Predict the structure.
Amino acid sequence: MNAKVNPLSRRPKNKRLVMAVRGAAGVGKSHFAASLADAGLGRLCFFDAERKARLLAGASGATPKFDALEIHHPDELPEFISWALEGEGKAQNYGCYALDSWTLYFGRKYRQSLEAIRAQRADPTAQPSAEQLQADQLIYQEVLRRLCVDSGACVVITDQIAAKGKEDREENELGQVLPMTLGGLEYYVDVMIELSLRLEGFEQVRIARVIKSNSSSFPIGLELKNPSFKDFLARMEDLENAKEEFPEFLKPIQLISSGKEADLAGLLQQGEEVGLDKTQVLTAARHYHGVSSLEQLKAEHIADLLKRLNEKYPASEKRQKLSKVA
């Protein structure tokens, strides 16, 4: 008689985070993926579809910090993943995985399928049918499933944005690439961030902004400066361990006018009184005034946001909300 699996033995036992990192070329996506090696998760297996890992610190030398495996042909990637998860590579005891990059693998695989169709039909403009696209999607999703689900480990997958404003319509020389370059990742990752470079004073910093999240630890719009994967893990653990505390007495509500008192501190205080954190205020500021940070808001922008806030949450509603909490 075969032994039965106890379902309770399958409860999550370790902290696990699966991330996608999008951004233009040169913003540090590969460096972020390689930071898995310093997150205390075990040895990193880095699937290098771009063949650029040789430029990363710790990827080469007599004693490399992590194993960077160059993918010379797109059909090698599924084989390499199987090798690492259940083949001879399992002896390496990998604790985390990275794929750099999903865009390049997807584009090369799509190009391979398109060229085969055009050769078969002897038509240089032929396009795949809906059935062929569906069959290809199963292959693409299998790669993501194996890495993000079957591995049971922390994973980072990089995805390139060709140019700002083209996130939903990436193209190559052989035609439009399917929207699944983004959609496929959304199905399998916990958190998706967009990396960009920002000049603060005379210093160039990397900014990671959360654009998709399944975790309350990483709200949409959250920004982290010069982040590593370890920073995201630490934030997740800190927020899950933190206990919410309420003051014994409620502060009286003070409406802030849109005149001289319309400053950033007042805006944040007003938002806090109705349950909005700094990230939510930043998201509104970005939507209504096109700024990338709260410090870029002008006085008239702050006044506008305060007006919207007071219209959305009149003083009477605020008192009702606070009385319910009490």
Summary: Residues 32 and 228 are 6 Å apart (CA to CA). The longest helix spans residues 130-150. Confidence is low (pLDDT under 50) at residues 163-183, 255-262, 318-326.
